[in-house]
Structure formats: C-alpha cells, structure tokens
Amino acid sequence: MLNSSGDEITDGSLKKSLAIVAIPIVAQHLALSTQLIIDVFWLGRLSSTAVAAVGLIQPVVGLLAVSINATASGVQILVSQRLGADDPTGARRITIHGMALAVSLMATIALFMHVYALDITQLFNASSTVTQLGATYLSTLTLAYIVTAASDTLEAGFVGAGDSRTPLIANLTAIGVNAILDPFLILGWGPFPKYGIAGAPYATLAGYVVGGSIIFTAALSTHGDFSLTRTALQFRPRELAKLLRVGGPQAGQRVGRQTARLCIVAIISMTGSTAALTAYTVGARIATIVFVPAIGIGQGATTLVGQNLGADQPQRATRATWLGVTVGTLGLGSLGVIQWLFPTTLAHMFVPGISGQTLTYSVAYLQILAYGYWALGAIYTVSAGFNGAGRTEISMYAVLLQYWAIRVPVAAIMAFVLGYGAFGPFWAVTISNIVAGVGLTVAFYYSTTTGMLTRAADTASNPAD
Asked: Is the pLDDT of residue 2 over 50?
C-alpha cells in the first residue's frame, strides 16, 4: 500500500519510507506534466502560434499558482510536524485554514487576471496574434485555478500525513478527464464546438472539478487516512499566522522565480522571435518532466524531515535529506545524458513537423538544459531539509539569488551585450541552476553542523496550543 504511517516514517527504514511517500508524488507530477504536454500536443495540431502563445504566458500562469503552491507547502510542512508530535487535531485544523486562505487569495488573483489578461500579454512585445491567443488561454484558465486552490491544499495535508496515494488517485482521474476532452474541445471533434486554444483550459477545468470531488470525498470519510473532523473547522487567527510564516517565504520564492521567467521570456521574444519562443516552450515542457522525480523526492523528504523533527529526531531528519539529495542528483544527471543524446527526437515528439530555425533553437536549448539537470536534482531535494525544518526563507533567498542575481543579468548580458541573442537566455538558465545547486548544498551542510535541525526539532516537538 502506497502510504506510510507515522511510526514507519520516524522509526522504520528511511529508504523505504522515502520511496513509499515519493513514488506516488513522482507519478502524480509526471501525470501533471503529461497533462501540459497533451495540451501542447493538441495545440500543436491547431497551430505553432498557439504553442508559442502558451509559452508566452507560462510564467504568468506560474504566478497564478503562487498562492496555491505556497499555502500547500505550508500545510504539508505543518501537518508533518504536528503529526510527528502526535497532534492530529492541529494537523487537520491547519489544513482547513490553508484551504480557506488559498481559495480567498486565488479568487482575488483570478478576477484580476481575467479582466487584464490582454493587457498583460501585450507587455511581452510578441506578435498581435500570439498575444491575443495567450490572453484567451490565460483568462479561461483562471476559472480552473479557483477550484484547484482548495483541492491542492487538501492534497498537501494528505502528503504531510504520509498518504500520497489518495492525491495520486484524484489527480490521475483529473488528468484523464482533461486528456480525453482536449481534442474534442480544442479541435471540435464530434458534437463539440471548436473552442481552439480556449479548449485546453476548459478541459483542465472539467478535470479539476472531478479530481477535487474525489479528494474531498476521501477527506470527509471517517475511514480516510487523513479525514477531517468537525473540530478542524474552528477558526483560529494564530493558525493563519503560522501558515503565513511558513508559507509566506514560499510565495516570495515562487513570485521571484516566475517574475524572473517573465523577463527571460521577454528577452527571448525580443531576440529570437516566435521560433525561439516555441523552442523555449518545448524545452520547458520537457524539463518539467525531467525534474519531476526531484520534486517528488523533495516533497517526500519534506514529510520525512518534518515528522522526524516533530518526533525530536534531528539526526534522522538530516539523513533523510542527504538520502533525497543523492537519489535526486544521480537520477536527474542520468536523464540529462539521455536528453543531450536525443534532442531532435524529443523536439519532434512535441511539435510534429518542427523544422528550420525553430528546430535549431529547440535542439540547442535541450542540450544546454541537460548540462545542469544534476544541479536541479540537488536544488529540489536539499531544499526539503530547510523546508521540513520550517526554514522556508532560506529556500526563498536561494531562489531570489539564483534568478535575479544570476539568471536574468546573465541572460541580458549574453543576449544584448555579447550578441548571443536567444542563446544567451538559454545558457543563463543552466548556469544559474548549477550555481544554485552547489550553493544550497554547501549551505545545508553548514547549517546542520551548526545545529539548525536540532533547534527545529525542539520547536516542532513542542507545538504551542
């Protein structure tokens, strides 16, 4: 059974517990990445301009999810710590508070994005056709994100409890619905009208509604691994304060990352036109699949670290982090070798008929990305040690330095000063990943030798009422 009890996480084999928690998360993220690929696959049959439009607004879509991801991360961390300290009521209560916060924030953000979608896409200096299509996609997708705000936060509670199987089932169902509906709604198959680029987010919305229904049903069941009770509905301002303290830096981290990506997209659009933007979209989609294992291992390790700190076992939490780093670095490094060897095949898989300058850019970007995959494995997994300890601000500072002190300046200098054009931003991505991977690893080693996890265990194992 793919869920791990608290006793297994704090007393059993770390390798087994990490595998049990991480495997469903990896499968879930692979499925989510597949959903994005399926969208691009069918939009590619619509037109290459539609693919470029999705790439244009992808960083904006990332900003849409900031409130959801940050709140979900805070919920997972606090739930794992509280269950490790044998406080199930507190774990359920923080989940309810997280859901309320995520939905409120997302509804506000979605309303703003829905009204100003075209104004936002016009900031990227792309062609009028690309900006119009991007605005259509963006304004439609905002509806789906209100639904997923609640379901994703609740899923984080399950993962923090060591049950990553239930969220996997819900997401696989949601993605299956999305995948089935995509060609019908995008291309107008059968009795369905042809919605074009808007069909992809319509299919996503339908999938999220179905998947959300499953996760809510599981949470309300008294037989569930992470069932919610009536006592969890008690509102406590202090819970929101704790959630904001842990999740706030995660929001800052994601805002910093996504706004920097907006700059990268703008630089690529100005220096390489639609061909380079399409290549960037292809590379980003493939990279999303590649670093999914690191995300899953990192989230699994966060649960292990949090529960062991709650159980006052800092040394075991340290070992869990280094185990994740080892697996993530070696795994992504191996995938990087495969991508470097077969970039043309991968490009054709995503955009059939790709050729000319677009293919040249795509092959180059895929090979450049491959050089830094091992570092991505380190970034996502070593962050689990900091995040599981509640020190999410460290990950935030690392991301801000990675993107704003390295990636954006290097991209601008190489593109405009040194004359590398769109290849400048391509190289800037890999350079920033390598610097961040090495820096975070050194920082975690230093922090553990100076007692960071011991202090975190003292706090987590004695939760305030």
From this structure: no
